[in-house]
Amino acid sequence: MALKHDWTKEEILEIYNKPFMELLYEAATVHRQHHDPNTVQVSTLLSIKTGGCPEDCGYCPQAARYHTDLEGNDLMSVNQVKAQALRAKASGSSRVCMGAAWRNVKDGEEFDNVLEMVRSINKLDMEVCCTLGMITENQAQRLAEAGLYAYNHNLDSSEEYYKEVISTRGYQDRLDTIGNVRKTNVTVCSGGIIGMGESEADRAGMLVALSTLNPQPESVPINALVPVEGTPMEEQEPVPIWEMIRMVATTRIVMPETQVRLSAGRTQMSREGQAMCFFAGANSIFAGDKLLTTPNPDVSEDMEMFKMLGLNPQKAFEKKSQPESVAAEKSKYRSQGEKPKWSRPEHKIDRNLEAQEKAKTKA
Ligand code: SF4
Predict the structure, then answer these.
(1) From the CA of 140, how far away is ligand 1's center (Å)?
(2) DSSP string covering 296-350, please?
(3) Does the beta carbon of 62 sit less than 6 angstroms from any atom of ligand 1?
(4) CA of 55 to the centre of ligand 1 (A)
(5) What is the DSSP string of 306-320?
(6) Is residue 130 among the annotated active site residues?
(7) Which residues have C-beta within 8 Å of that of residue 23, sequence separation ≥ 6?
């Protein structure tokens, strides 16, 4: 059956607000039609460059302008990354996702090193994902040639609510980066965060933006906000588990073939809550005791949970064949020293400005 690409906010809200049992049943049915319900993909998230980010994302402890206890680090070496990838593989991960706290990728030595990291992880027969900020088409092509399997670039929320979270870039920049990735054979991973103070209509709005992309993203992470002291969202109430399950189930129904990733916020969820998310269609998790900078359950705890629920980790390249890694010297695409003009809306977000002021007094 052809996938529906014209979802409206009203249709999605109607699904989100169905009686709970009906919603769960419908999502589980869709899930079984498109996926093996006992298989869950396990990714390891690796922060290859932490902190010092110039952006003002209201949820993020890596933004340099807020005062958090985060210890930053410069870009890791290729060998360090390779060693961590080997460890992740040994503990059952089929994918390594490398995150760098950059606004956008800049051509040069650091990006060349990231390309080398991609090549070396692909050679370990693991899926490689990167989340490096905004990228141009040429940069996406170079990542693809290096053997990148997926590129993550979250929409975070609805277009309307995005303006309440981030002032240093616009929603269209996000969509343009996703569009640049789509011009290559790299798969798209894009999702968002709930619990930032958004309305149900904003949650539906984000799912409209994602589900009307054609093709729909291969992977959609659903994060529950982890409020970090010092960030503008430090006082947000935790997301009730019922809302998380509703969000996962709705995502599953509107994007049947996508891998729905249970991402940040799992430490606040019971195993029963996580089991319901898997039943409702979540079929991927991030493993490792840290999710970039916020806490995450230990790998052994996850494997124990998998055993209890009869879940099996998905093997690498089960959904799409392994990309070839082209050596740097044989590359068709070269560094262009591009200086792309990504937007800087710089509108005012009161809570971001307050957190910034507070940080100055603490510094
Ligand atoms: S979410 Fe990414 S872009 Fe935003 S402040 Fe954090 S590291 Fe920077």
Answers:
(1) 19
(2) ---HHHHHHHHHHHT-EEPPTTSSSPPPPPPPGGG-SS----------------H
(3) yes
(4) 6
(5) HHHHT-EEPPTTSSS
(6) no
(7) 15, 16, 246, 249, 250, 280
Query: Does residue 189 have its Cβ closer than 6 Å to ligand 1?
Result: no
CA distance 339 to 17: 45
**Best residue among 46, 53, 56, 223 to mutate for probing ligand 1, ranked by most atoms within 8 Å of CB:** 53
Per-residue pLDDT of the chain (363 residues; tens, 9 = 90+): 789 999 999 999 999 999 999 999 999 999 999 999 999 999 998 999 999 899 999 999 989 899 777 778 899 999 999 999 998 898 888 999 999 999 999 999 999 999 999 999 999 999 999 999 999 999 999 999 999 999 999 999 999 999 999 999 999 999 999 999 999 999 999 999 999 999 999 999 999 999 999 999 999 999 999 999 999 999 999 999 999 999 999 999 999 999 999 988 888 899 999 999 999 999 999 877 665 666 666 778 888 999 999 999 999 999 999 999 999 889 899 888 777 888 899 899 999 999 998 888 876
Which residue owns the Cα nearest ligand 1 atom 2? Answer: 101
* Residue 207 CB–ligand 1 contact under 6 Å: no
Q: How far apart (Å, rounded) are the C-alpha atoms in residues 310 and 135?
A: 39
Task: Write the single-letter amino acid at 313.
Answer: P
Three-state secondary structure of 141-153: HHHHHHCCCEEEC
Give the up-direction half-sphere exposure of residue 177: CA atoms within 13 A in the CB hemisphere: 28
CA of 103 to the centre of ligand 1 (A): 7
Instruction: Please tell me which residue in 95, 119, 129, 169 is annotated as part of the active site.
Output: 129
| Matching residue, tokens 């089929």 | 94
